[in-house]
Design goal:
Blueprint: H1 15-23, H2 27-35, E1 39-43, E2 48-52, E3 55-60, E4 65-66, H3 75-79, H4 84-101, H5 104-123, H6 126-144, E5 151-159, E6 184-191, E7 196-204, H7 215-223, H8 230-246, E8 262-268, H9 275-288, E9 295-298
Parallel strand pairs: 7-8, 8-9
Antiparallel strand pairs: 1-2, 2-3, 3-4, 5-6, 6-7
Helix pairs in contact: 1-2
Length: about 325
């Protein structure tokens, strides 16, 4: 049996990959990310994801650049019948061209166009609409919450590894959850006024306030992982911060403190007309699901998506 890979935590542990972004072959791509507010650079375990409109525009490791061939699926391609092999062939051609020419600017422009068509197509599919909406809000949140605001977003879609120091275990709260799950947290941010780490679960509208992706489940996930071993989590995020500072994605004096991370919710209504009604339902569900020990932030529906004004219910 193959030996299970030891979890090293999020961060660029491979110096060659880190230096490639700093001054090597990938510097041109990082320069584009710095200038383009629509692109989000997130560090994973020895690789990087570059996000656009909530989707991964490029996954970059030590020896490869990848992206999801499903982004070739849109209204035009579905009209002719979806051909997965054709998609894979086109994807391979794109990657070969990028590998040869290293024209990152051309790649980003082309990939954005593909992704826009894909997301527009999903918007017309009711079952996919909520997932897209939440991911797009995450994207806008990253652009709006930096060092000049109340919060700085450090990471998105933080998945707990089952091999990590905070492997999920059931808590004493007797919540109905699995021991083998790998929770994923929407937003990891630093509150700039006190430098405290915050784990934030985002809710867009009232469609996912209950059930397996409901408030109780997310609170349990935090209690059964990060809250059990906060020091491990803080050290992991500090590594991401140091890497981002080295790559000049954060200022040199940016820091986080050693306090245990705080968990909270952020809520944005599905549209302005429903804001009051949906906010009332959010508060009701926090009370019904016994989550009132955690704060909640109400985000405006004007598209600014600034984190702040935490309150208790």
């Amino acid at each position: 049996m193959a030996k299970k890979k030891e979890y090293s935590g999020r961060g660029l542990h491979n110096s060659a990959l880190k230096e490639s972004f700093k001054s090597g072959n990938l510097k041109g791509l990082l320069d584009i990310v710095r200038k383009d507010k629509e692109l989000i650079f997130q560090i994973r375990e020895n690789y990087v994801n570059i996000y656009y409109q909530g989707g991964c525009l490029a996954k970059i490791g030590e020896r490869s650049i990848q992206f999801d061939e499903n982004f070739f699926m849109n209204a035009e391609t579905k009209k002719d019948g979806w051909d997965h092999e054709k998609c894979l062939k086109e994807k391979k051609e794109w990657l070969e061209e990028l590998k040869t020419n290293k024209d990152y600017e051309k790649y980003v422009v082309k990939m954005k166009e593909k992704m826009k068509k894909h997301w527009n197509w999903l918007q017309n599919r009711p079952k996919d609409r909520r997932d897209y909406s939440e991911k797009n809000v995450q994207q806008l949140l990253c652009a709006s919450n930096k060092e000049d605001s109340d919060y700085t977003i450090i990471d998105l879609e933080f998945e707990v590894s089952i091999n990590s120091g905070y492997k999920y275990l059931k808590t004493d709260n007797d919540r109905d959850c699995r021991n083998d799950k790998k929770p994923r947290f929407d937003i990891i941010a630093v509150r700039n006024i006190d430098k405290r780490l915050c784990v934030i679960e985002l809710k867009c509208g009232t469609g996912a306030l209950q059930g397996d992706a409901g408030l109780k489940d997310h609170a349990d996930s935090f209690e059964g992982t990060i809250k059990r071993n906060p020091a491990f989590f803080v050290e992991e995020i500090k590594k991401i911060v140091e890497d981002k500072k080295y790559l000049e994605l954060l200022s040199k004096d940016f820091s986080i403190n050693e306090k245990d991370p705080e968990f909270m919710f952020a809520f944005v209504a599905s549209d302005k007309e429903k804001e009051e009604q949906e906010w009332a339902e959010m508060i009701k569900q926090m009370r019904d699901q016994k989550c009132t020990m955690y704060k909640v932030m109400k985000l405006e529906t004007d598209g600014s998506y600034r984190l702040g004004n935490e309150c208790r219910v």
